[in-house]
Amino acid sequence: MFQHNRLSAEQAAASIKKGVFKPNIYLTNLALAYFQSAAGFISRRLFPVVPVPLSMAYFFEFDKGDLTRLMVAKKPEFGHVTPAVFGKRDHSYKCQVDQIITGIDSISSLDFQRINAPGVIDPRRAKARFVAEQMNLYLDDMWAQKYFNAASWSQVFTGTGTTPTGNQFWFFDNDNCDPVKFFNGLFTLMRQFGLRKPNKLGLGLNAFGALQNNPAILERIKYQGSEANPATVTANVLAQLFGLDEVVVAETVKNEAKIGEEDDLQFICDPNSCLLCFTTNAPAIDEPSAGYTFAWDMLGNGQYMAMQQYLGEPATHTEFVEGLLATDRQICAPDLGIFLQNAVSPDWTPSMT
Q: What SS3 string covers 129-196?
């Protein structure tokens, strides 16, 4: 029996030939794992993260009505005007700690160590990435519940297949829909009631697909391509057409089924809806923002998403990977978000040709 804790590739091969060591051999250049693309996670791209030193505290909101009310007046002779009112309100946040733990069997992982298994099948690396993926999914899920819904915003519009009235608009897949014209109208609306021009748009995947095939949009970009590089409607193209800083497509999926049940994969954000908003790119003192995600450094190591590894009880021969995060989501300015629900017709499906 070999006495070395770790075998070289040559030693492992010789050992296998002699019949001394018969591990299950795995490919070292291939593994199948349904980790999702980091670009599809929407929570940290659309709304800014505010690092906070305390788990709970207050912040000020200055009154929009006072800031926009004209209070300059003629000075009366020998007197003065009435002092102007400049009011403020208190907002609070409270970050609560969420946790995930997964285990690594130290005994079963020995085979991987002894044959110098590469990182692709290293149990520790795989479990650490699993924990990180879970925390990102959780952030997106909490973000969607708080922000990606009609109940959170002052202005809500609904798609329709007939002539729009009131707070309605043509379905994005309807030939009558001109999204550029429609969004220009929404910009004017938010500028009037929220005092800012929208700068970001979060799109459900079906809404994005319908915009990619919208005739009015295709007409605007048809001369921008070539035979070698045909014009395509990307998120960046939509941002330029609409005059936005960024368009983010919500692609993350979660499994609604419990362990042992058949998988039930659903989009975290409603694929048929959109959120148009104004948010700052970083925490600001003199700017409003539709919302903020407050993030508390709960371990004092500068990370609001913290991971650590520790040993279980000796007899278990187990290691644990732990993920911690402490966040709170606050809608700070409901008039800086416009929610568009049912943006595509009920029978619309992505083109398969």
A: HHHHHHHHHHHHHHHHHHHCCHHHCCEEEEEECCCCCCCEEECCCCCCCCHHHHHHHHHHHHHHHHCC
Tokens encoding 303: 């990370």
Q: Check if the beta carbon of residue 153 is closer than 8 Å to that of residue 343.
A: no
pTM of the predicted structure, to 2 decimals: 0.84
Alpha-carbon Rg of the chain, whole angstroms? 27
DSSP state of 24: P
SS3 assignment, position 91: strand
pLDDT digits (tens, 9 = 90+) for 173-231: 999 999 999 999 999 999 999 999 999 999 999 999 999 999 999 999 988 766 567 77
Q: What is the distance between the alpha carbons of residues 268 and 41, in angstroms, rounded to a whole number?
A: 10
The answer to whether 150 touches 343, Cβ cutoff 8 Å, is no
**DSSP, res 17:** H
**How many whole angstroms separate alpha carbon 280 and alpha carbon 200?**
10
SS3 260: coil
